[in-house]
């Protein structure tokens, strides 16, 4: 099963899982992550890809590993 790296974005009242590069079509897709007061990680897992140009497929949403910036306050060179 194909995995798709998703990053969490906070919207107005709701989370979104954003896939910058779809493994199928290479485009950006956004999937709902539920209400802000909920746990968006419960909505990871198998989702229907939002591709328009190719046949709809299933991929596994996987949380993107935290950026190095998050653990190194002075940034990285
Ligand atoms: Zn796609």
Describe the structure.
This protein has a five-stranded mixed β-sheet with strand order 3-2-1-5-4, with no helix packed on it. The model has no long low-confidence stretch (mean pLDDT 87). Strand 1 (3-10) and strand 2 (14-19) form a beta hairpin. The chain is globular and about 35 Å long. Helix content is 5%, strand content 40%. The protein has one domain (2-63). The chain contains one helix and five strands, in the order E-E-E-E-E-H. With 77 residues, the chain is mostly beta strands. Bound molecules: zinc ion (ZN). Zinc ion binds next to loops.
Query: In terms of structural class, how would the helical and strand content be classed?
Result: mainly beta
Any idea what the shape is?
A: globular
The major sheet is characterized as: 5 strands, mixed
Question: What is the spatial order of strands in the main beta sheet?
Answer: 3-2-1-5-4
Associated small molecules: zinc ion
Mean pLDDT across all amino acids: 87
The secondary-structure element order is EEEEEH
Work out the helicity level: under 10%
- Radius of gyration computed on alpha carbons: 14 Å
Number of helices: 1
DSSP summary, beta strand count: 5
